[in-house]
Amino acid sequence: MSRRDEIIDVALRLFAEQGYQATTITQIEAAAGLSPGAGGLYRHIGSKRELLVAAFDRVIDSRRAAQQAPGIAEPADPRTAISIAGRAFLGYVAADRDLYRLVLRGGADLPVDLTDLYQRLFQPGFDEVAGWLTQLAAGRRDFDAAAVAAVALSSLCYFAISEFTYGCPPGDIAQERFLAAWTDGLLAQLGARP
Question: Where DNA binds (residue ranges) (predicted)?
Fold first, then answer.
């Protein structure tokens, strides 16, 4: 990991904890092990806003790389495939926890175009899952893959966000139990036997 990446990580963590507006360059420098107020941060990045944009871009690039990486063979059993997909999505959210916390904490106050961020960061995932669900639905014309994908991914997001925001999952349901019910719900939508 480069020094620039370390600084971006520190900045994103502080932005998530304190809010973007409340976090100062001096605080970021101190937390990153640079001399506070000496301007050392500017050798690695041009501004506080650039730190924020770099953090978002890094997550977007990481997601694109993961989508393009050769995957393992997809299980023939839809239940297993859906369960693996749910766990993978929760893993993405967990890996990007500070980004989610930041957007939830003060999205409207961030100096970025949130619509553009959504289109670049989140919409591709919804589109990919909708395409995958269409394949699993085996050509059913009455199947609304985009709506089912939106409901499925939104429920996973809320589960993860509830855990790191409130310290407990929704309904105090353990992750394994939630994923089992989530998988059964998707199988039912697909017309498969849960």
Answer: 26-45
End-to-end CA, the chain: 44
Single pTM value for the model: 0.81
Identify the burial level of 31 via C-beta atoms within 10 angstroms of its C-beta, where 0-12 means exposed, 13-18 middle and 19 or more buried. Answer: middle
| Residue 9, phi-psi category: left (phi > 0), alpha (psi -120 to 50), beta (remainder) | alpha
Considering Cα of 177, then 179, then 181, then 187, what sign does the dihedral take? negative
Q: Are 69 and 26 in contact (CB under 8 A)?
A: no
For the chain, helix (H) and strand (E) counts, in that order, are: 9, 0
How many whole angstroms separate alpha carbon 38 and alpha carbon 22? 19
> With contact defined as beta carbons under 8 Å apart, do 51 and 45 qualify?
yes
Using one digit for the tens of pLDDT, what is the confidence trace for 18-27? 999 999 999 9
Can you list the domains of the chain with their CATH numbers? 1-71 (1.10.357.10), 72-194 (no CATH)
Query: In the predicted model, what is the mean pLDDT of residues 7-22?
Result: 93
Percent above pLDDT 70 for the chain: 93
